[in-house]
Amino acid sequence: MSYAVRIPSLLVAVMVLVASFWVPVSVVAADGPSASFEKDVTTVTRGDEVEIQVSHSESGTLHIGGDDYGYHLTVELTGSGTTTVTIDTYNSTANNASDYISGGGAKNLTTASLDEPIEPSTYLMNVTIGGVERAIGQLKVTPRGNTSAETHVAPASLNDSDDGISADSLPGSMTKRQMVAKGDYAVIKLNESGLESALKPDDISGGPTANGIKVSMNQLEVRPNHEQETFLATPENGATVVEDLENDLIYVVWDTSDLPLEGDTEEYEVTVTLEGENNSLVEEDTITARSRVELVEPTISIDVHNETTYPWEALQVNVTGETTIAPNSVLEVRARAPGQPFLKLVPVTVSKNGTLSKNLTFAPEDRGLSFPLWIRGDYYDLRDQTETKLELLESDAGMRFVDQETDGTYVTVSEVTLSVGGFVRVETADEEPLGTSAYLPPGTHENVIVEFDRRQLADGELLAVAHTDQNRDENFSVSDDPPYRTNGTNGSIVADDAMVRLEPDAKTPTPNPTTATSTEEAAEQVTATATATPYPVTERTPLEPSGSATNTGIPLSPGLVVVALVVTGLLARRRQ
Hints:
The chain is mainly β. It is rod-shaped.
């Protein structure tokens, strides 16, 4: 074999030999002491707590800082595993390191104690085992940022749940808004920075016990001969502190029930102050955040659509309104018929923009009722602001048309009762229209004159028909104003007929004015008229609404309605 051929074989042999020696060396190194940090760089805001996790195969020592940093802390790591060391940077001025450090074994500060919380900087961290450095990392202490504040509002019912007020329930209940109705909760949302260790939720009134953290509600407008009123955020003043430190949030929840309100509006400013004398983070009193609260009276205004519901309309009432009460507040729409077992209770929730809307549906048997409707709140007296009267009208009509003499240009209907107003139309036996009365308001009318559009030229039997004013324009229209009927859409038309003879010298009687205008009075007069006159009356029963607004008729109850007598074949022919 040639020399050129043997050289590659020799190189291969050398490489195999080297590899055989290298592998055992690596195994020996892996079996030695080891350590590592969970994070290469651990960051904390000055004043907050920080957790440092160290994994170590044997006992060792955690070093933070050094002489060059003016801060050198050592913490013993015992045995093997993972050790979590927690440092409270706000209280790092303590003489004994164990007072602000937990986790690990013995703790020692080899440099002098700090006069102020540990300064913002990047501190070297390492782990030594047997005096040999086995891991390296950094602790980065960042300066405190600015604490910001926002005003929100939450319903007065916020504290009603068994769990009370919590960081979980607050965000979904509150709405960002400076206007707060007296009795609701003003929620001051604080985006805190570096306060989690210093904050004591049960005491944010300033002073040594509160670590100098003070939250106060300050009156802005000082009236003549009055002193500015300031309220500390204490339980006695209605304040509750809720922490959400995982998200760097603090909520100051303030019950405004006992806050003074002069006039319609009272302006307050909520301030978060760090007192330099009692807080290590500042040298002098410093306001770190502020936000406004506009305290107002709990007011509400409503608009009731279909406040008066006519017989041909569906039995639905829409209630809308605006209120200063907090969004997400649950109020109650109440409707009650006095003297009758009738009470409707419907909850309504205030929307995010301070409005409310609710549809109420009534039953057919509720027709004919007149009753109050108002808004009720568990924490507010709203009835005086919202009470309104609802009328669910039913359709009752009665008529008396007697034989008479006329000069051919008019007839007189002796008596007409219309529960919701309308007209009287007169026709010939051949259903040819002769004329229509003027609009008749709800109530009973006597001697109603119907002038003819054309002269009647011969004696004959005429028919008077009661019509509604369904479009409520007080102008008669055949297509828009169908006849009154006695039993819904399939009932008989309310009408009466009379024999009319021509007499050139006949005198027009004087009509009497309307004797009733309210629906209740009209219904009473229908009853009285039915008793005193010879035309038939049926007992009152509930009505169902008409399906349309055409000339097919309107829904009527048979109660107190006078049915037209068909003394001749005239009305029978109309039905056909």
